[in-house]
Amino acid sequence: MKLGILQCGHAPDPVAEKHGDFDRMFTRLLAPYGYDFEVWNVVDMEFPDGPEAADAWLLTGSKHGAYEDHPFIPPLEELIRAIHASGRRMLGICFGHQIIAQALGGKVEKFAGGWAIGRRHYRIAGLGDIHLNAWHQDQVVALPEGAEVMGSNDFCENAVLVYDDSILTVQPHPELSPEIIAGYLAARGEDPAYPRDLLAHAKAENVKPTDDAAFAALMAAFLEKGREALL
Length: 231
What we know:
One of its GO terms (molecular function) is transferase activity. The chain is an alpha/beta fold. The chain is 32% helix and 26% strand. It has a nine-stranded mixed β-sheet, with helices on both faces. The longest helix has 14 residues, at 73-86.
């Protein structure tokens, strides 16, 4: 299977220098499943010709808000709708989760409850109770028609969404291992945009494992079986 990666943003330079950009994080995470990968840097206005350029698709995270005015967002939303109409399967992570919801008629906004940073607990259909790293303030606050919640926690009600048999999206980051989150905490530790107490808590929690491999297995199962993987 050829998995097209739509890179919607770039990792902070110190993180990318050590761990690679988001595309490399995902190719490592999904390496056990034997995909062929091709990457389009849509954030830099590099787009595929259409949905047929890959068998399935994955949209990465980004520092940008889905609701912000950036040149890449309107054509990305158009591509998302075209992929959905084609019936090809699609995965979305963090910003990818949000932009897919927005493109299909949902609403994304800066969450009044603040930030989620670091290791968080989620209950997810098909997996049960797991822990994944998060780094976001924006959330999907209104679902598109046809979307169903398949995972949540007390902070993020719409953390995992499934659309019919073709789209699976997740708000936290299965590609951000504890080692990578440590790099984020170092790179952004002095940024006043992030609450000090949340950064300190994330650093303390980062000695504990996350369930990245389990969620990667769910992603791979979804690409093969669709909604059945969540039952």
